[in-house]
């Protein structure tokens, strides 16, 4: 056996220094809802860790994204997967310093010389929150369920399609046999569920996992209560193998309006807000007891065009505009998008211009198009492309399609995301100059039309993990829904044979440099198909109250984000500030210490609308 262990032991984050504001942060006036309010002093409260007595310490997190599901088999939104990282252990974790594989439920692992058999040693010091031991049988049951039940494969099926067999020869040993080598065996982002609970579930797609509390898990927190678009509570797991969290409870509180969440932060009603606009961040930066964290993000924002929604059984559906099947039309639209202007005017510098699919934060996988390949801002070229393709202007300046009708499109926009709205206005102006109409449909729930294929274009965005496999897998033919009535894991109904070949090649390549080159070729192919075009990589712009939170760990530790991490480091490590108040029994009363997560933007931490995975109900989706 060839032993494979982490290159260095993981370093559990301690309550180190609080993250500093990003140096690129600028000052802007707060908008209509931005009147600066004096922050009243917090009520006196018993100091010290809860185990030492005193009042309960509650870290309240304001969220603007709705939980799509509390079932680990179905959840794909960032808010939901972030909750599951707190409530369930994964086979392996990501090191907080640099994202390398680190022990999770598995303490070590080995692979056979052929790389087709992986053996994991399961820790003996992990227990389910109902007191039962976590064993290899739980992991084997989780993986086998995903392999055998298409409904259970909704969220994470791409990780197990290459599995031949999974067994647990004893409580401390898990064995996975593969059909072909698979490079993601230390990055299987699948929550391990308790077999003794889930084997009683008759239908995975119908089981919402939100009817009986507390929900049995093995992570640093236990889910104790949930009310749709109101709140979700988690209590600290005092028996967590890596040590108990410093707060007794997390409260994720829903704010549909980002300004309301920011106002709650200023008043001390919440303690953490994410997805800040530039104006909000600038105003908060000048306030006492509030620290702004502005760090390179792990997500991208893109324009997605409907390639013709289809299912694996060969059926087509939806109402995508047929003109967008013409590569010349898509290329012309992208040539008429000024990314530099959007980064400057919309994001006010809190973003980088979009290029490849993988954000620049992941340097080894980030790709840039070659000079002759790049679709840069060039309105004249866009107009020429449309002219040559036969989309002529009328006397009134409007473009007409080949059917003689005016060329006009719809774009799905997230009503809770101010960036979508702002960019939509620029697109109307730029595409209007080409003679193309655009209707910006800003909806609370973009999921339904997206799943049905009832869109022409859409604002699309994903948070990418240190291993990019999942974000790449959602564009394969295998990710399409089985039938029009099903929900696949596809992002945008893309199915391209060459892309699939490259995807399979990178998934089987263990040598890091060779795999990175294949990942870049994959991005190049996705770029050339022209169904997706990345606009920007938004920064993670967030703020917290230093009189509520003494310290909290970012990921990566140097200039990283707090919300939406690849792990549980931030909330597990967070320490209450001395004198912080009591969260109280009723979050709707907003009493005491509410440590709030989230406000209006992409990686927003505010629970918002509700929908199945990949259709963004705010800009924050799946990981």
From TrEMBL:
Q: Where is the Solute-binding protein family domain?
A: 101-472
Predominantly, its location class is: other
Task: Spell out where the chain crosses the membrane.
Answer: 593-613
Q: What cellular component GO annotations does this protein have?
A: cell envelope
Cite the entry's keywords alphabetically.
Membrane, Signal, Transmembrane, Transmembrane helix, Transport
Asked whether the UniProt record includes Transmembrane helix among its keywords, one would answer: yes
Q: Where is the composition biased (Pro residues)?
A: 7-19
User: Which Pfam families does this UniProt record tie to the protein?
Assistant: SBP_bac_5
**InterPro entries in UniProt:** SBP_5, SBP_5_dom
Q: Where in the cell is it found?
A: Cell envelope
Q: Which GO terms describe its molecular function?
A: peptide transmembrane transporter activity
Region Disordered: list its residue ranges.
Answer: 1-22
- GO terms for biological process, alphabetical: peptide transport
Q: Which family does it belong to?
A: Belongs to the bacterial solute-binding protein 5 family.
Entry protein name = Peptide ABC transporter substrate-binding protein
Q: Which organism is it from?
A: Streptomyces qinzhouensis
Q: What high-level taxonomic lineage is stated for the organism?
A: Bacteria, Bacillati, Actinomycetota, Actinomycetes, Kitasatosporales
């Amino acid at each position: 056996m060839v032993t494979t262990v982490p290159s260095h032991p993981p370093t559990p984050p301690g309550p180190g220094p609080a993250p500093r504001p990003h140096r690129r942060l600028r000052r802007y006036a707060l908008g209509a809802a931005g009147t600066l309010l004096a922050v009243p002093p917090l009520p006196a409260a018993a100091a010290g860790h809860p185990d030492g007595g005193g009042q309960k310490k509650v870290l309240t997190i304001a969220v603007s994204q709705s939980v799509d599901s509390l079932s680990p088999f179905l959840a794909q939104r960032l808010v939901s997967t972030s909750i599951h990282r707190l409530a369930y252990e994964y086979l392996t974790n990501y090191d907080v310093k640099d994202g390398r594989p680190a022990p999770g439920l598995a303490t070590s692992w080995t692979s056979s010389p052929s790389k087709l058999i992986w053996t994991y040693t399961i820790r003996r010091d992990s227990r389910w929150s109902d007191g039962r031991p976590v064993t290899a049988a739980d992991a084997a049951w989780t993986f086998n369920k995903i392999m055998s039940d298409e409904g259970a494969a909704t969220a994470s099926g791409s990780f197990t399609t290459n599995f031949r067999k999974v067994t647990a020869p004893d409580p401390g040993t898990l064995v996975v046999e593969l059909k072909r080598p698979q490079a993601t065996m230390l990055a299987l982002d699948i929550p391990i569920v308790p077999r003794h609970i889930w084997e009683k579930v008759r239908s995975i797609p119908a089981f919402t996992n939100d009817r009986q509390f507390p929900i049995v898990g093995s992570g640093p927190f236990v889910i104790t209560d949930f009310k749709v678009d109101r709140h979700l509570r988690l209590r600290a797991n005092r028996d967590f193998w890596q040590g108990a969290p410093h707060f007794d409870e997390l409260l994720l509180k829903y704010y549909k309006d980002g300004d309301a969440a920011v106002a709650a932060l200023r008043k001390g009603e919440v303690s953490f807000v994410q997805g800040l606009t530039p104006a909000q961040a600038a105003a908060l930066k000048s306030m006492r007891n509030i620290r702004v964290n502005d760090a390179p993000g792990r997500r991208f924002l893109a324009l997605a065009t409907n390639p013709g929604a289809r299912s694996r059984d060969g059926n087509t559906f939806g109402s995508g505009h047929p003109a967008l099947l013409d590569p010349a039309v898509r290329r012309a639209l992208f040539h008429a998008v000024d990314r530099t202007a959007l980064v400057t005017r919309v994001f006010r510098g809190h973003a980088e211009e979009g290029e490849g699919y993988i954000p620049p934060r992941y340097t080894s996988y980030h790709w840039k198009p070659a000079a002759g390949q790049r679709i840069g801002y060039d309105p004249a070229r866009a107009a020429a492309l449309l002219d040559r393709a036969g989309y002529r202007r009328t006397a009134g300046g409007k473009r007409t399609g080949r059917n003689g009708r005016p060329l006009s499109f719809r774009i799905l926009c997230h009503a809770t995301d101010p960036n979508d709205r702002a960019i939509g206005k620029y697109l109307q102006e730029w595409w209007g100059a080409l003679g193309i109409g655009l209707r910006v449909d800003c909806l609370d729930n973009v999921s339904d039309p997206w799943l049905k294929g009832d869109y022409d274009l859409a604002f699309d965005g994903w948070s990418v993990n240190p291993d990019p496999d999942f974000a790449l897998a959602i564009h394969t033919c295998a990710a399409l829904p089985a039938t029009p009535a099903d929900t696949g894991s596809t992002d945008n109904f893309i199915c391209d044979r060459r892309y699939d070949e490259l995807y399979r090649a990178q998934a089987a390549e263990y040598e890091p440099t060779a795999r990175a080159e294949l990942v870049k070729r994959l991005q190049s192919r996705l770029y050339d198909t022209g169904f997706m075009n990345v606009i920007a990589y938004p920064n993670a712009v967030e703020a917290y109250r230093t009189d509520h939170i003494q310290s909290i760990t970012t990921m990566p530790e140097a200039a990283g984000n707090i919300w939406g991490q690849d792990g549980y480091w931030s909330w597990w490590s967070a320490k209450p500030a001395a004198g912080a108040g009591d969260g109280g029994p009723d979050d709707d009363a907003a009493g005491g210490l509410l440590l709030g997560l989230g406000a209006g933007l992409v990686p927003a931490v505010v629970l918002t609308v509700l929908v199945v995975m990949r259709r963004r109900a705010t800009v924050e989706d799946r990981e």
